[in-house]
């Protein structure tokens, strides 16, 4: 047990370093006065941190993660979506954004943290509610970024390869949009990237 704990702790800096690298690559695309939709997960929380540290202009962030990490950055304008009412709250926020002259034409970005991808089924989700929420974020953004660590990508089939053994079978999926940007790390195989291009990844960013 002690050995297993030591191994997990030793691996942690590498995991967080990769998340920071992906987040920095993502934030480089964000322009001033943007509206940012953040999915909940570790990599997208890192995006929030990078937004706060790197940008000098105000960004309006809508997220379904209410974690303490995000609350440390009051200069970012956050709207938090919670629990069973999240979809209704998101619809209300969208109406306000569409009706207000100051936000109606702002660029909208969605950052989705994907633990698991499948070219045919899309983004793996833990629940039907998570799949619906991801789909809402994807449907209302002009520019979509999906962040996933290359260690979870495999080919053929991505979700059916050896990496899939680390995760329980997914029953819920959020479909890929027609066009999106994949941000991953430099261990991604060429075969896996080719499959995802076929699934709508019009741009692939290898964060390093």
Defining traits:
10 strands; 7-stranded parallel β-sheet; Rossmann fold; 208 residues; globular; NagB/RpiA_transferase-like; DNA binding; alpha/beta
Describe the protein's architecture and organization:
The protein is of the alpha/beta class and 208 residues long. It has a single domain, classed as Rossmann fold, CATH 3.40.50.1360. The strands form two sheets. It has a seven-stranded parallel beta sheet with strand order 3-2-1-4-7-9-10, with helices on both faces. The chain has a three-stranded antiparallel beta sheet with strand order 5-6-8, with helices on one face. It is globular. It starts with a helix and ends with a strand.
Topology:
Elements: H1 2-27, E1 35-38, H2 42-54, E2 60-63, H3 68-71, E3 77-80, H4 86-99, E4 108-113, E5 117-118, E6 122-125, H5 128-139, E7 143-147, E8 172-174, E9 180-185, H6 190-198, E10 201-207
Parallel strand pairs: 1-2, 1-4, 2-3, 4-7, 7-9, 9-10
Antiparallel strand pairs: 5-6, 6-8
Offer a quick outline of the entry.
It contains six helices and ten strands. The chain is α/β, with parallel strands linked by helices and 208 residues long. Strand 5 (117-118) and strand 6 (122-125) form a beta hairpin.
Total of helices:
6
**Would you give the CATH topology?**
Rossmann fold
Say what oligomer this is: single chain
Strand fraction equals: 15-25%
What is the H-and-E element order?
HEHEHEHEEEHEEEHE
Over the alpha carbons, how many angstroms does the gyration radius reach? 17 Å
Largest sheet: 7 strands, parallel
Low-confidence stretches: 1-13, 159-165
- Alpha-beta content class: alpha/beta
CATH architecture: 3-Layer(aba) Sandwich
């Amino acid at each position: 047990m002690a050995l297993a704990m030591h191994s997990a702790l030793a691996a942690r800096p590498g995991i967080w370093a990769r998340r920071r690298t992906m987040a920095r690559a993502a934030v480089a695309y964000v322009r001033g006065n943007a509206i940012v939709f953040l999915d909940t997960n570790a990599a997208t929380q890192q995006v929030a941190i990078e937004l706060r540290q790197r940008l000098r202009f105000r960004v309006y962030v809508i997220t379904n993660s209410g974690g303490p990490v995000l609350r440390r950055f009051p200069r970012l304008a956050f709207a938090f979506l919670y629990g069973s009412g999240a979809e209704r709250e998101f619809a209300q926020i969208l109406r306000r954004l569409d009706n207000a002259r100051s936000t109606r034409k702002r660029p909208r970005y969605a950052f989705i943290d994907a633990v698991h991808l499948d070219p045919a089924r899309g983004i793996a989700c833990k629940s039907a509610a998570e799949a619906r929420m991801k789909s809402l974020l994807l449907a209302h953004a002009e520019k979509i970024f999906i962040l996933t660590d290359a260690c979870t990508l495999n080919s053929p089939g991505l979700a059916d390869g050896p990496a899939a053994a680390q995760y329980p079978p997914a029953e819920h999926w959020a479909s890929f949009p027609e066009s999106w940007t994949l941000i991953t790390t430099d261990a991604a195989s060429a075969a896996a990237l080719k499959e995802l291009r076929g699934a709508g990844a019009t741009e692939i960013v290898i964060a390093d």
